[in-house]
Amino acid sequence: MLNYVTSYLSSNTTPGQAGNVLWTLIYILIVFGGVSVSVIAMNWLERKALAHFQIRLGPMRVGPHGLLQPIADAIKLMTKEDIIPAEADKFVFMLAPLIILCASFAVYIVIPFGPTHAITDLNIGILFMLGVSSLSVLGIVMAGWASNSHYPLIGALRSSAQMVSYEVAMGMAVVSAVLMTSLHGLGPYGVGVGTSGTGTLSMIGIVQAQQEQHVWFLFKFFPLGFIACGIFAIAMVAETNRAPFDLPEAESELTAGFHTEYSGLRWSLFMLGEYAAMMAVSSIAVTLWLGGWFRPFPNTLTGQTWDLVFSLFPGLTFLGLAAIAFVGVVRMPKHAYFRAQTIGLVGFGAVLGLIGLLLFVPPVRDRIQDIFWFVAKVAGFMYLYIWYRATFPRYRFDQLMKVGWKVLLPIGIGVLILTAILGVVL
Amino acid sequence: MQQIVQPGMQPVATTFFFYFLSGLILLSGVFVITCKNAVHSALALIFGLLAQAGLYLMLYAPFVAGVQIILYAGGIMVLFLFVIMLVNLERSRRENQFNKQWLVGLLAAVALGALFVAVYAKGKNLFPYRIAQPIETSNTQEIGVMLYGKYMFAFEIASLLLLVAIIGAVVMAKKRI
Amino acid sequence: MGAGQPGDRERPIIMTDRIMVDPKTTDAKTSDAKTADSTRFLSHLELGEPDKTFLDTNELVINMGPQHPATHGVLRVILKLDGEQVLGTECVIGYLHRGVEKIAENRTYTMFNPYVDRMDYVAAVSNGLGYCEAVEKLLNIEAPPRAKYIRVILTELNRLASHQLWLGTHALDIGAMTPLFYTFRDREEILKIFEKYCGARLTTHAFRIGGCQYETYEGFEQDVIKFLDFAPPKIDEYEELLTTNRIWLERTKNVGVISKADAIALGVTGPVLRASGVKWDLRKAQPYAAYSDFDFEIPIGANGDTYDRYTVRMEEMRQSLRIIRQAVGRIPEGPIMAKVPKVMKPPVGEIYHSIEAPKGELGYFIVSDGSTQPYRIRVRPPSFVNLQALDIMVRGALVADVIAVIGTLDIVLGEVDR
Fold first, then answer.
1. pLDDT digits (tens, 9 = 90+) for A329-385
2. Minimal-distance CA residue of chain A relative to C178
3. Is any Cβ of chain B less than 8 angstroms from the Cβ of C55?
4. Out of A101, A181, A203, C84, which could bridge A125 as a Cys pair, Cβ 3.0 to 4.6 Å?
């Protein structure tokens, strides 16, 4: 039994490639659980971070510093009355959130958290991801239509038009990155022969190409990789209908969006799908341009000592979070009403500290590296999402489409052509 | 890079998946033509197209499967759905299904079936292996080599045709240029 | 459905009573026969055709209802759209009508003073200033210099507070949710000063006919000076967030343009007029209450679009700070109340006095019949007159711009409806 477990812990392929159904299922469950927990954490983080941007505190009452707020929200949404409009098409009405959810979650099949830590490594990984995220457009259109009301329909059509337009720009950026996988040479301008020169569409292959070329694609052919990543970063914000591209679902506009008629748990499914899609496209961006699971500076700062220094980061991060929690404990008001919250926060800090200490243990430390750096980079992108929402006004719909077609697409094509030229010349 | 087909990557339950996917396609086809609500028909068609992508995967053509999902299910069917939703089809929903010419329909279906059986009987020897064999180079590479090598001209002409179609659509739909 | 009656002015928007009537119980012919009024309206909206979807008609009449997060109060705007473009609008007001002017006929002049704050509840101090000065003019008395200076300081503080509220809500309508919190936080300081002075934050009732009731409290000048040092970096912060932001520029440039001639023809006043290029500010043109002692500039804009109105109001905020700084340094000593009879019986006559409120020209037309209660008080609210410009400003714009333009007009429904 233990042999069975250890044999798969030390395998060199992903479970899907090895064809092992049991381990694939276990990975799927782990990823699914991880994404769900992340969505809850992301909900909390968004409310707190947005509040702090706006010089207020955010949820503070439900649990220490509002940590249990998402759970309270989930309970509230689950106990709400499930309203289906009278003339609505029931089947399609119920199907729409499920389609969006399935499309958002299906992307996680190909996302690599490490060289062997993916559910599977399809050799058309990127293509699969582009295809599946275009299925969520269907869900939105169905949601708008099934509500049988003018405003959700207009909102849904606008939203889907926006998503389809920005998919084109996203595709251009993705093709630039895939092109870079097929290049010879090391470093930002590809001097010398370092790689086999075969391109690949598989996600793990793209990250390994970045390793073999000794450069993150963000810095490849500087500034081309940077611009391509920028195009993808903007397009992914528009893909997921987030600010500043959230006109279809803004409250102060006339059309209140495709999820107007949804209430309770169905609405929360939309939000779940939206956050999961945000994390999925952020993971894609990290894989394509930011070197996936590699630690920062894998080639300029090499050697045993640097490896050791960087391997301490996970533990230090958690210990830092625990320290912040304990500072919060110290600053809690010393009043009987806050006793429960103080104890809760102490417990939370203690759990974080224990995890941090656990991450210093060498066997765990080695295994957690890939996953930690990947998740840290994705977390950076998620913070950017919240930052955009707090700072920028909203684009009007025609300006939004103009940016997608007349600005991003030409720049994307230009980057693609220049990358191809540089790839052949250098 | 990764080896496309690794040792130990055996096709899993080929027969089961073939019959399952084909059954899904047939079922969705039946729903497409029998649903009264046009949106339901479109949804059934999407389902069928996704099952077809699965069949492409079984034929070791992952690129075609991916492109099928992106373009067909995610692009063309969305377009169909837009049109269906924007055009009011209330009237057709209230109409009764009629089958006054069932005899002619039956004869045509039998003739088509006989044609299929004849084609299968004649062409059985073209495919000696029942199960598709994996190819050495990747499907993506093969397609790339074909499109940009042997069929370069056709590819460019097709893209030019699409450009003409786009411009035509924009000109017809825009109110002022 | 005829062409209309003689003397009918060209209605910008086609609206029919049928929208408010239950479509199931009436049809086109009967409602036309019933009300002669409906001949004034032509209808392009064909109700009751089952084969047409709402998207088949070229023109669509929709309603931005009284309750709407972006209409700054209970304003109903009926939009006639062609797809996404606005062909015309009609504003339906009166949801907040409280009969203030009628109430005035049954109150004495002193008793009416608190009612005036409730009209433009954002800039209550300005309202009070206009009314007190109008009655003083009627009674032919003048407030003492100290009272005038105190009035100027408080009114300019209120102008700043009103513009800050405008900025927060306008940015929120356009989608930037953060400046709202910043401006409200900074507005708190001003409201604290008001509270210390007269006990109220919003509906201040700060002034009395003939001067001020309350002497400035201990530390008033220090508080105001502290605020003067606190405010400019905050205004810079708002500018940093918005002025050069590409999205803000795209949403506000060339949106809601009103030309100089149109603005003057419609009677638009305030920052809206100044942004169209007309250098008209009542504080300089017809100075009142010690404004002639101070040195300040009138910002004007060039294009008359939303961005110009934004820059004009931002600059006005800075100019207000300049005025306050000059005023607080040299408040003259002396009485704060003039000799006003206990029972006020102004001579028979009428008077119109207007001031530059934050939103435009706020005017009071008071007719006195010699008794203690006015015969008629008519208030000329700036928002009411500015709202007429909405129709011209949004012709040809998109629906999302309507919300931006309503925000940029800076209307307060309490003033529009009274």
1. 888 888 888 888 889 899 999 999 999 998 888 888 888 888 899 999 999 999 999
2. A54
3. yes
4. A203
Same-domain status, C209 and C295: yes
Of A131, A160, A200, which is closest to B78 when you measure between CB atoms? Answer: A160
Q: How far off is chain C from A175, nearest CA to CA, in Å?
A: 28
Query: DSSP 3-state assignment of C206?
Result: coil
Q: What ipTM does the predicted assembly reach?
A: 0.83
Chain C: closest CA distance from residue B94 (Å): 12
- Do C224 and C274 lie in one domain? The reply is yes
Helix (H) or strand (E) holding C201: none
| Chain-chain contact of A127 with B66 (C-beta, under 8 angstroms) | yes
**Peptide bond just before A244 cis, omega within 30 deg:** yes
Q: Which of A19, A122, A145 lies nearest to residue B39, judging by beta carbons?
A: A145
On whether both C260 and C388 belong to a single domain, the answer is yes
Claim to verify: residue C188 and residue C139 sit in the same structural domain: yes
pTM over 0.90: no
Q: Which of A107, A127, A166 to mutate to test the interface with B (most CBs of B within 10 A)?
A: A127
Q: Is B81 on the interface with A (CB under 8 A)?
A: yes
C173 touching A, CB under 8 A? Answer: yes
Omega prior to A223 cis, within 30 of 0: yes
Range of the domain at C30: 17-92
Provide the mean pLDDT of chain A: 85
User: What is the CATH code for B11-89+121-134?
Assistant: 1.20.120.1200
Distances (CA, A) of C179 to A6, C241, C413: 55, 8, 22
Put simply, whether C50 touches B (Cβ < 8 Å) is: yes
Phi-psi region of A308 (alpha: psi -120 to 50; beta: other; left: phi over 0): alpha
The chain A residue lying nearest B77, using CA atoms, is A138
Tens of pLDDT along chain A (426 residues) come to: 676 666 666 667 777 766 677 888 888 899 999 999 999 999 999 999 999 999 999 898 888 888 899 999 989 988 988 888 887 778 888 888 999 999 999 999 889 888 888 888 888 888 888 888 888 888 888 888 887 777 777 788 888 888 989 999 999 999 998 888 887 777 777 666 666 667 788 888 888 888 888 788 888 887 888 999 999 999 999 988 887 888 777 655 656 677 777 888 888 898 899 999 999 999 999 999 998 888 888 777 777 888 888 888 888 999 999 999 999 888 888 888 888 888 989 999 999 999 999 888 888 888 888 889 999 999 999 999 999 999 888 888 888 889 989 999 999 999 999 988 888 877
Assess if residue C2 is contained within a domain: no
- Contact at 8 Å (CB) between A280 and A108? yes
| Predicted confidence band of residue C20 (pLDDT cuts 50, 70, 90) | very low
From the list C179, C198, C197, C175, the residue with the least C-alpha distance to C187 is C179
Identify whether C8 is part of a domain: no
Shared-domain flag, residues C85 and C112 = no
Task: Identify the domain boundary among C65, C92, C119.
Answer: C92
Residues 112-171 of A with CB under 8 A from B: 121-124, 127-128, 130-132, 134-135, 137-138, 141-142, 145, 153, 157, 160, 164
Choose between A259 and C114: higher pLDDT. C114
Q: Token digits for A356?
A: 């941090």
Label residue B43 exposed, middle or buried (CB < 10 Å: 0-12, 13-18, 19+). Answer: buried
Do residues C394 and C301 share a domain?
yes
How many structural domains are present in chain C? 2
Co-location of C274 and C351 in the same domain: yes
- Cβ contact C51–B88 (<8 Å): yes
The yes-or-no verdict on residue B67 having pLDDT over 60 is: yes
| CA–CA dist C394, C404 (Å, integer) | 10
Q: What is the largest CA-CA distance in chain A?
A: 72
Nearest CB among B1, B67, B85 relative to A196 is that of B1
Sort out which chain C residues have CB atoms less than 8 A from A399's CB and list them.
250-251
Tokens for A277, please give them.
């899609």
Same domain flag for C253 and C231: yes
Nearest CA in chain C to A149: C54
CATH code for position C353? 1.10.645.10
Closest-CA residue of chain A to C67: A252
